[in-house]
Each structure stands twice: as C-alpha cells, then as structure tokens.
Amino acid sequence: MVSRTPDDLQDLLVSWLRELAYLKRSQHTITTYSKNIGLYLAWAREHTEAPSLSRQSVQTWILAMMQAGAEPSTAGTRLKAVRGFSRWLADEDEIPTDEIADLKAPNVDRKVVPALSDEQCAGLIDACKGKTFADKRDEALIRLMLECILRAEETILLDLSDVDLNTGMATVRRGKGGKGRRVGFGPATTRALDRYLRARKTHRLADLPAFWLSQKRGRLSYTGLDRIMKQRGAQAGITDMHAHRLRHTGASRWVMAGGSEGGLQAAAGWSNRAMIQRYTASVREEQAAAEARRLNLGEF
C-alpha cells in the first residue's frame, strides 16, 4: 500500500462513484462529488508535491480556494466530497491512512435567504401566463415547489405515478438522506398541474415516466430547472432567483399562515426542528420588527 498520485486517484474515483451508485446516492450527488474531487485532483497536479490527500495538501487547497474568492460554504461542500473519497480509500486499503477524517470545514456565516413576498410570488406566476408548453409547465412547477416546499432534486425526480391530482398528493420517493414522504397540494396547484399534464400529452416524449419534461429532451435536468427559475425571475423583476428560494418561501408562507411547526417539518422532510428556524429566519425577523414597532419601546 503506497501513497497515491493524482492520476492514481483519478482512476480510483471511478470505483468510488460506482460505490455511491450502489449505495443509491442520487445522480446529482454523484455528479457533484465527482466534479468537486476532480477540482482537487487538478489542483494537486499543479500545486503540491506532498502526497495526494495528505492533510497538508488538502488544507492548502482549501486556503487557496478561499483566497481566490470562494465562499466558505463552497469550500466546505468541496471538502465534504474529498473527505468522503479519502474515507473510502482508507477503508479499501488504497491509501495508508485517512489523514483528513477530522479536518473541519471553514466556519460559514449563516446567510438569511429572503423569502419572496406575496407580490413576487404572484409576479412569478404572472410571468408564466401563456399557452405554450413551457408556460404551462413552469406555472405548475413553481406552484408545486412553493406549496409542497420541495427541494430542486426532489422536484425533477418526480415520475407521473408520483403525482395524484384526485387526492392532491405527491410522493417524494427519495428525499435527502434517502427518506421518502408524501406532500399535499390544493386546488390552484391541481388546476395548474392538470393544464400542464394535458399539454404534456402532445410532447414527443410523452411516453417517458418523468413528470417534468424539457422542451427538447427528456426529463428536466437540474440545470434546466435553474434556467427556468432565473428566466421567470428576470421576467418578474426578481434578482438572484433560484429554486431554493421557493423552498425558503414555502416554509415562510406556512408559518405566516399559522401552520404548525410539526406539520412544516413533515412537509419539508426535515429530520430535526432546527431547520425550521433556519428556513423561516427572514419571516421571523419581519414578525419581530413588526412587533417592535407595535410595542414602541423607544417611547419614554
């Protein structure tokens, strides 16, 4: 058993990705891990003479990445992939020891993701008003993600058999951590989904099991979903629009409407209640500000 070069590790990466597929990690996760490890290996070929995956090498890479302007959250995500790869290599006796098992990610400033206002949500829906396939699909997509507080990957992995308009229920087969759940939606979303499904029947790939179809290809991809969100956000005058804002907004709207925290936790597929505070931070700040103005404690 010897220290591995970046080229050795590039070959072993293929085996680890097969292992992840066996463990039923999502394709998005596998692709992301492959990309992030590839970035490290490319850097290691050029910038270090230390054994690849040594603690010194990985720490230097993280520092260089942040000095180049990467956010701590980005550095942490990339480190997570490399750390998982290193753990597997050690378990498989492909490297002498896992030197980065306890290497901590950089501290991350927790940013408050602002929830969309009701006016902005309505603007997104208005941006989809039209009779084209894309218009009908995008309205249904936005409504379902908002109301059901879905993750992006959960959304694009839905199949036709997972959505029941008669009961107003959708089944997420594999949420984060491989956990499935059922989520409910109301009449407005049902109507939008029905309009989309009628348009979908005319798609040349209508026989595919995927619920969401791109205009020219098959199942809508993560990149395609992101493109839709940016396009519709721009049409609605919303800057920095991305799919995850719909999840934050859905959680905030749940709280504002008086929904229970237990119900929100179940609907969003969170394993602990701490996520409720994180995802509803912006709306709670607004509530606190409104309460402060009502209390008027600055008056003496």
UniProtKB/TrEMBL annotation:
Species annotation: Saccharomonospora marina XMU15
GO MF annotation terms: DNA binding
Ranges annotated as spanning the membrane: none
Tyr recombinase domain residues: 111-293
Gene3D superfamilies linked: 1.10.150.130, Intergrase catalytic core
Region forming the signal peptide: none
GO annotation, biological process: DNA integration; DNA recombination
InterPro entries xref list: CB, DNA_brk_join_enz, Integrase-like_cat_sf, Integrase_catalytic, Integrase_recombinase_N, Integrase_SAM-like_N, Tyrosine_recombinase_XerCD
Record keywords, A-Z: DNA integration, DNA recombination, DNA-binding
DNA-binding found in the keyword field: yes
Protein name (Swiss-Prot/TrEMBL): Site-specific recombinase XerD
Domain Core-binding (CB): 7-90
